[in-house]
Design goal:
Elements lengths: L2 H28 L5 H20 L3 H18 L7 H23 L5 H14 L68 E9 L1 H5 L4 H9 L2 E8 L17 E8 L3 H6 L8 E8 L20 H10 L56 H27 L6 H25 E3 L1 H18 L2 E7 L4 E3 H5 L2 H15 L3 H6 L5 E11 L2 E8 L6 H10 L11 H5 L23 H10 L3 E7 L3 E9 L4 E9 L2 E6 L3 E6 L5 E4 L3 E6 L2 E7 H4 L16 E6 L5 E6 L1 E9 L3 H4 L6 E6 L5 E5 L1 H8 L14
Parallel strand pairs: 6-8, 13-22, 17-19
Antiparallel strand pairs: 1-3, 1-4, 2-3, 5-7, 8-9, 9-11, 10-11, 12-13, 12-20, 14-18, 15-16, 16-17, 18-19, 21-22
Length: 763
């Protein structure tokens, strides 16, 4: 991969962050937040995407982002009110911007008709979306020569008529101070914090990449109080002027409460395309209010009017002249501010509720293959640590206090290293949750329903592999919740509900697993219809006795659908069964709860990682197996009169809530012939487990050996599918032990022929 390809890949990675920040900001604005910094963050996200796209000559992306950016600029300058219609359009624009980025990344071309109409719609909100023409001269020349009308360049329209002074009489001179009013910047009181002096001289490349010096100056002024001076000393006469050249430079004195890193962030996408010096100076002592008002900004002269025209022209690829000389006075010169080692947009993240910026943290980008290799090595470390402990125990050295203490410290250190390395792959669910908001908008529009997405726990962290493979299942669940659950607005009104339905997406950590719920406030599951369809399709017997929960879970059977008419959203019998298989492939569980007229909730229970597992090592018919600790509620002895026979071959055991069925693990896995546990003299130990849907069962094992953390090795990748087995691991003595698939064992024991083996996807 060449240097340009690496830069391109980095750009698209940063685009993902900027687009996520854009959508999150627009959603907060839609909820009624009007914080200025929020609007600025949304603007910067689009501006950053546009700037990077210009560097790679992504014309369509630059064009659309420019129109989007123009509208956002008018919103933050209070020229445009962000009403419901505008924000709805901007959310659609964020979706299209995402599509344009994806198309550019994949080397495809998005149909211009897809984004051009939306760009025109956005432009209509702000009078066409074109920048305002520069102001005409205050007083034209007394004896003007023939009128001169410059050609529009780059979509910028200059003043319709322009009368230059005679070339012999024109001498460029340093322009007076550009006040905030001249730059369309609302004046603000000077903060009492820090003072920075920014020297900016754009190169031609800055303008060629769709950046603009005026926008950068406005960005600086938004950080506090800016005093801007323009240097025209390098501007040639008109007869020597290259209309595409870069001749102007600026010196900005900025009083702000922000840090130097925040000031440097304004130039993050154009720092290589300009001469830039940022230094901090000691702010002057506060002076008393002057008696007389400050003098007004000088009226623009004929020369200044020519500069207004030049500002509207794009500079050329000629090399920029020498940079302005810095003030070398030691007392006046402060420390130069270096670029921060943070990702663009990192400083803008924060609590959506509090609206405060998150503290800055230094980050680095690391290739995912390197992280995976590190995780594999740590897994081998865990295995070798277990082997060492086993060897010390077998050699009777564990009685030595120093050896035992050293092993305990090694065990603790190994676990801490493993947890720290796994945390590297952990990432919050927020980006995934944000993607679902687009699904909600599209499906609601397609079905003619009013739906609002509410999210909770989006900062819950899960292994990156789990997050990546959750996208399709969550998409199916969200679409089904809207299409099947939420009613039409008129139906909801008749039922006394709010016409706008609510779909809630939440996540939380519970007992070493992550639990994700998708709920809606719709009509709930029509159990009578579900049962009838299941009988008609031959999925269940007509006289089957099913609980409400079992009826609800019929929705996960392959080919099952409650929709009478096939549409582009549902009705083809493909959906929830795919969701179930996807969750099972992640060693997860899924079940549904529903209440008629009040809605449904689908719950996913997933492991935090697919690399390690806390398990209970047990013996079954001379074999060593591992049962996932997350599925075990408690262990019970099979002695006494707690075990009762049931039917010809079955047995049950009494627990606190009554009786639960017993499953003979050895016979289910084919290690021994079927038997009735109630008839056995030596029965072993029962592991009370909770399977998918909340049902309880008791797995019978011969003995419990140990409880430890094991490294998961994919059995499907290295061998093949084995019913009732999820994966494998290597024990301390070097033997391979199978990891039980509790849900599949329970389903097979109950006679569910459709039960699929649960297979972990770990490497």
């Amino acid at each position: 991969m060449g240097a340009l390809d690496e830069l391109r890949q980095t750009f698209f990675e940063e685009c993902e962050e900027q687009l996520a920040e854009l959508e999150a900001g627009l959603l907060r604005m839609q909820e009624g937040e009007d914080d200025k910094e929020l609007v600025n963050a949304v603007f910067r996200a689009v501006h950053s995407v546009k700037g990077g796209a210009g560097a790679f000559e992504l014309t369509a992306l630059v064009s659309f982002a420019h129109v989007f950016e123009t509208a956002l600029d008018e919103v933050r300058s209070d020229k445009l009110t962000p009403g419901p219609d505008l924000l709805k359009t901007m959310l659609r624009a964020a979706d299209v911007l995402n599509d344009l980025v994806a198309a550019a990344r994949d080397g495809d071309d998005l149909d211009e008709g897809v984004w051009r109409a939306l760009a025109d719609e956005i432009a209509a909100f702000c009078g066409g979306g074109k920048p305002a023409a520069p102001a005409a001269p205050a007083e034209p020349a007394a004896t003007p020569p023939a009128a001169f009308t410059p050609e529009p360049i780059g979509g910028l329209a200059p003043s319709p008529t322009f009368t230059p002074a005679p070339l012999a009489d024109f001498k460029p001179e340093p322009l007076a101070i550009f006040t905030p009013e001249r730059l369309d910047i609302a004046p603000a009181p000077a903060p009492a914090g820090r003072r920075f002096v920014v020297m900016l001289r754009p190169h031609v490349a800055l303008y060629e990449k769709a950046n603009d010096a005026a926008t950068l100056l406005r960005e600086l002024d938004a950080l506090g109080k800016a005093r801007v001076e323009c240097d025209l000393s390098e501007l040639p006469t008109l007869d020597a002027l290259d209309p595409l050249g870069a001749y102007l430079s600026w010196t900005v004195t900025l009083d702000t409460d922000e840090t130097g890193d925040r000031v440097r962030e304004v130039f993050e996408f154009c720092e290589d395309d300009c001469y830039l010096v940022i230094r901090e100076e000691k702010p002057p002592a506060p002076a008393p209010e002057p008696a007389a008002p400050e003098p007004a900004a000088p009226e623009p002269s004929a020369a200044a009017s020519q500069i207004d025209i030049l500002k509207a022209l794009r500079p050329d690829p000629a090399p920029a002249p020498a940079a302005p000389v810095e003030d070398e006075t030691p007392e006046a010169k402060g420390p130069e501010v270096k670029a921060p080692d943070v990702r663009p947009g990192e400083a803008q993240r924060g609590d959506a509720k509090a609206g405060a910026a998150a503290p800055q943290h230094a980050t680095i980008r690391v290739d995912l293959d390197r992280v995976d290799r590190l995780i594999n090595l740590v897994g081998e470390l865990v295995i070798n640590q277990a082997m060492l402990s086993q060897a010390v125990f077998e050699s009777d050295l564990s009685k030595n206090a120093s050896v035992a203490g050293g092993l305990d410290e090694l065990d603790q250190l190994t676990r801490e290293i493993q947890e720290s390395v796994m945390a590297i792959r952990a990432q919050p669910l927020k980006p995934l949750f944000q993607r679902m908001s687009r699904i909600v908008r599209e499906v609601a529009e397609a079905t003619g329903k009013q739906v609002r997405l509410v999210t909770e726990g989006e900062w819950t962290e899960v292994d990156k592999t789990v997050v990546e493979r959750l996208a399709d299942p969550l998409t199916h669940m969200i679409r089904n919740a809207i299409d099947h659950g939420v009613e039409k607005p008129e139906v909801r009104r008749e039922k006394g509900k709010d016409p706008e339905g609510v779909v809630k997406l939440s996540a939380a950590h519970r007992s070493g697993r992550v639990v994700i719920e998708v709920s809606d406030d719709g009509a709930g599951v029509n159990r009578e219809k579900v049962r009838k369809l299941a009988v008609d399709k031959g999925l269940i017997a007509a006289d089957a006795q099913l609980t409400d929960g079992e009826i609800d879970n019929l929705l996960f059977l392959p080919g099952f659908s409650t929709v009478d008419k096939v549409s582009n959203i549902s009705g083809r019998g493909v959906g929830m069964d795919v969701v179930k298989k996807s969750i099972h492939a992640l060693s997860g569980r899924i079940f549904i709860r529903s209440k008629a007229g009040q809605g449904s909730t689908i719950t996913l229970s997933l492991p935090l990682t697919l690399a390690v597992l806390d398990g209970m090592v047990v013996s079954v018919a001379g074999q060593t197996l591992v049962a996932p600790l997350s599925a075990i509620i408690e262990t019970m002895s099979l002695g006494g009169d707690r075990v009762k026979p049931l039917g010809d071959t079955g047995s049950v055991i009494r627990d606190r809530d009554g009786f639960v069925p017993i499953i003979d693990t050895a016979s289910e896995l084919g290690f021994a012939a079927p038997r009735r546990i109630a008839d056995e003299a030596e029965r072993g130990v029962a592991l009370l487990v909770e399977s998918e849907g909340g049902g309880r069962s008791a797995l019978v094992v011969d003995a419990i050996q140990d409880q430890r953390q094991v490294v998961i090795k994919s059995l499907e990748t290295n061998y093949g599918r084995v019913p009732g087995v999820a994966a494998a691991t290597i024990l301390g003595d070097g033997r391979v032990a199978l990891i039980l698939d509790v849900d599949t064992l329970v389903a097979r024991a109950r006679g569910d022929a459709a039960a699929e083996p649960l297979l972990a996807a770990a490497g």
